[in-house]
Amino acid sequence: MKTVQFTAPATEPISLSELKTHLRIDSGTFAGNVDSTQSVAPGSHAITEGYALIGTAVDVLGYSALVLLESGTNGATGTVDVKIQESDDNITFTDWTGGAFTQVTTANDNATYEMAYTGTKQYIRVACKVLLAACEFGVSVVRNAAAVTEDALLTAIITAAREHIEDITGRALITQAWDCYLDAWPGWGNNIVLPFGNLQSVTHIKWTDSDGAETTLTENTDYLVETSGDGNGRIVLPYGGSWPSGTLYPSNPIVIRIVCGWASAAAVPFKIKAALLLVAGDLYENREAQNISSAGYQQNRAVDMLLASSRLWVRV
Fold first, then answer.
1. Which one, of 125, 101, 99, lies nearest residue 111 by Cα?
2. What percent of the chain has pLDDT over 90?
3. What is d(CA 98, CA 83) in angstroms, rounded to the nearest whole number?
4. If you ran DSSP here, which 8-state letter would residue 36 be given?
5. What is the mean pLDDT of residues 259-282?
6. First vs last Cα of the chain: how many Å apart?
7. What is the pTM of this model?
């Protein structure tokens, strides 16, 4: 099976901040090590019941994050309730357990309250409720986000390390799309085994006949998709079904577009992330030369052991 990447990953299993923490790199200054995003702009906020005042979401994956509630003056009898919400996809948010700030009243306003986010989701935001009177406040998210002159190099190293781990394991580590080309339908059997593991979906199956006419098959009618968890996904014929008949085009007549990989960085197993950090660290520390074993290749046994159970032994 010939494979060609259609869409590269939009994110990486580890962040730039995570690699910097692993390498113990920072900017050298406090101001250079942090950044701050206003989730709720400071000012006077009108009465808003039912936590309807929603703050801007912030990507905190791989960062240490601190949420600051900066209270001004509450209106007479006014109260402010703020809670932290979290999400994997920046679409569906749920309350983070333990993420509710102490209610701000006229007895404890004009103060700054802080809470460290220690959850595992990629995005956080705040939801606020203002009762009885307008109140002055703002909410910011502060991240440990050191910027150094080697950021571009480190970013490239993360991608190179991820691709190396994918070569070792035969997996797609994070969401990406591939076109898989076949020269013929299976000569026997009712299924087509797909590469890279962690199949999320099949976008389409198309085939071209000898006259150049293209036909798109219909999922759940012409074929079934078996995602198979983190193993190899499969295309399976429905009961009583058969592969299309007709003379195929002589070059890449059948194309199956798949979306595969773990859906988010948070879902990638920790042992794979650990191996990725080790590879990235080695690429950074040994930019000019690698230690070569007596067998004639560079080897990191810790990486091999971490990835031993993550390899796809069926290579398509």
1. 101
2. 76
3. 9
4. E
5. 94
6. 6
7. 0.71
